[in-house]
Amino acid sequence: MRPVYILGVGAHPWGKFPHKPQLQLALDAMSLALTDANLEWNDLQALVAASSRFEGGMGWGLHANEIVQAVAEKGIPASNVGGGCAAGGIAVHAAFSMVASGQCDVAAAVGAERMPKGFIPRPPGIPNDITDSDYLRWVAMGATNPAYWALETRRRMHDFGTSDHTLALASVLMHRNAVANPLARYRKACTVAEVLASPMVSDPLRILEICAVSDGAAAVILGSEEQARQRGGPMIRVAGCAIATGQFGDPAVRVPTIAMAARMATPHTSEVVGAVRAACTMAEVEPNDIDLVELADNTAWHVLAWPEFFGFFEPGQSDWMLAQGEMDIDGRLPINPSGGFLSFGEATTAQGVLQVCEVAWQLRGQATGRQVQRARVGMTAVLGLGANGASVVLKV
Amino acid sequence: MPIMESVPVVEGLFQDVAEGVRLMGTHCTSCGTHYFPKSLSCRNPFCREKKIVDTLLGPGGTLYSYTLQTYQPPPLFRMAPWAPYLIGLVELPQGIRVMGMLTGCGPDKLRIGMPMQLTSETLYCNEEGRAVLTYKFKPANTAADAAPGRGANS
Questions:
Q1: What distance in Å separates residue B37's CA from the closest CA in chain A?
Q2: Chain A residue set in contact with B, beta carbons under 8 Å
Q3: For the domain that residue A338 is a member of, what is the CATH number?
Q4: Shortest CA gap A177–chain B (Å)
Q5: What total of structural domains would you count in chain A?
Q6: pTM attached to this predicted model
Q7: Bridge partners (DSSP) listed for residue A47
């Protein structure tokens, strides 16, 4: 494998854009990333898109094909990758692999999403089938995604004494980080009292502690060392890049399953832990080397639990770290300086790409108003349906 | 009161036998892992034989976690009349944790680790006038309710 570098990153702001087609969101993000890379559409040698199930892609998940057909029909390979909400991370991994293997010198990964309103419904046309957990969880008990996360949260409260106040504090931190981020959808700071006063969704999780769904798009252009030197500026290397699936015995209450054979030896959220470990091994970094993390905070619980799962903190230690400000932008391990999912709302397949954009901006020193000082190593972690995990480590 | 004819919300998910409600799962006779609902194979990567047989799970377990779901889920879920309800995660002595609706007490009475037992209840009445049942867990409060030797398992 040869070294792979970030040539350019770009993202469309997150929000609701009812008059902008999914393809337009993708093109906007791609144009920004190409401009950032000082490249043109014609320079692109391969494109990988995260397949969305909601819109675009000709109904077959062919989002990369739509993009090349719309702006640059020159016969380049176009791949479309699935992976639920981790598809963006998996797209980055696929583009990384093409450059690392020498198949091409410039490859792009893109994720663009327009989300339906409210709870994510089942895809249309799927038969009612007892072997389909997503069918069972709805008909047998109506378990929404927040219910799954609430079961994890309630158990954490039991195991470690996590309080409502601490959960609210995690949400406050995410919203505070987003105030200076022009890409975030929710940019208003909130207080613990406001979070605690927000409506309960699935006890103990309140609406300000659960991510909304948004529209958004992000793109990353990766390239060889020679390409990166031509672009100029800081050399941001993709030092680690890994995808993984879940492991047998994972104790996570995994959406949309309704039962699990939990084994003590298996890490919680093993698909993401597996990807993080592999990415860190590839990058030859230890938790202490990492200056910031962008993780998939679907809820306030994720902000607390995931750094522990990754080995950054001891089990149960996150509550104290959060309260001491150690997860703040100027803390020991800044978590989601971007503002995270809680401030963006989840644009499912775009999220894993946006995380890489944010880490690149941080390492370049371009994260105005939310900059982690002296950031040299940053990591992303994202989870998707089907027990998909992806993680990227960038180094400057 | 006339006894209403009833149907399970999904065939093959649970059954009401003489001893009470049981979940219909599978068991790998090679590595001993239990699955719910029925699995097509054994998911244990270290299990080579993967010999799956049908088995009944339950009746008791302990409460591992719970939540009160306040918002009405999307339409595939039917419950009439609808009201906020509890969902729990119950650890069965067969080594698996199972999600299900909770009944028989309010959230204030629930304690993680308390013994629970399977039951079934009506979700709604369908167009043929039949009661559509789902499995639920309820607190195993009395000696008569609790299955011997199961309640204290954690």
A1: 7
A2: 118-119, 121-122, 128, 130-131, 133, 135-144, 146-147, 150-155, 158, 199-205, 248, 251, 253, 258-262
A3: 3.40.47.10
A4: 29
A5: 1
A6: 0.95
A7: A78, A108
